[in-house]
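Hi all, long-time lurker, first post. I run a small reading group and we've been trying to get comfortable going from sequence to structure in the token notation. Rather than ask abstract questions, I figured I'd post a concrete chain and ask someone more experienced to write out its structure so we can walk through it together at our next meeting. Sequence below, copied exactly:
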Amino acid sequence: MLKKSRILVSGACGSIGSAIVERLLGDGHTVCAFDQSEDGLFKLDQKFKSYYDGQLKLFIGNIRDEKRVSLAFEDIDIVFHCAALKHVYLSEYNPFEAMQTNIIGTNNIINCAIKANVDKVVFTSSDKAVNPSSTMGATKLLGERLITAANHYSGSHNTKFSSVRFGNVLNTNGSVLHIFRKQILENKPLTITSKDMSRFFITMSQAVDLCLEASKIMIGGEIFVSNMGSCNIMSIAKAISGDSKPTYNLIGLKSGEKEYEELVTDSEAIRTRVKDNLYVIIPDTLEIMPDSICDLYHKNYNKELSILQSSLRSDENMLSDHEVFNLLHSAELLG
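-- Answer (accepted) --
Happy to help. Here is the structure in token form:
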């Protein structure tokens, strides 16, 4: 990443977007915060303007509006595309809206980045894009495909596109930790969809690290996945309540939910390279990429790197109750 770059973050007022904004400001970059929430941008300004005067630029806009996105992309070096509709059950009842934001909006980001000669675009995806059972997951899967394909048709432009794939980011807005804390404060039983439900979890700091690392080493077309732990939902309930036998009600799976998630499928595993603490999924369309990109793939992802041997499922190799408690405690998420 160039020193003192001009970087745009879409969805800048969301949990992940705002964390990326804060990290980039701290690193000395000029950050263009793009979001449709006027109130959210106002709060960002109030939080950071006294510390980073002149570095934070506020852009009210919706990624569905290609013309507005195009104006915001002038003189931008790097884009972190975090804007999305993320709640599974809301997207099930509003699939057209999910498509407009998560698919059409992402396509607008791609078109505008190419026109503006942006250097790099990093798209934030989800494990729900893997073998999706929900509308939200399907839109994220297509978002990943659009981002990878953008490297094919950028033509003479040098813009590169890659994705990062998260598990559940701990303590984001609307997360299970927020729900459980509220229920505990109100002396209500915890709501458990299924005692067999398991999820991959990543801390906010790790999520931001993944985005920044991807922007530094990306060639174009990769999907970057952090090596993260998984656990049973009951381990979270025990840790947050401080009770080995928490009081809870079983409410059943919501529309579109799965009992377990996957980070990498069997078909992706055979083209996934293990690099330090990262899994790098090589695109299956590499043969139609420009020669310059193919050469870099052969150089950077050579045979010396190990290959993932199987899919990654959240119901396998789960953290113990004790390990989950230590994870949440070390991230200061139990108070």
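A couple of things your group might point at:
The chain is about 40% helix and 20% strand.
The chain has a mean pLDDT of 93.
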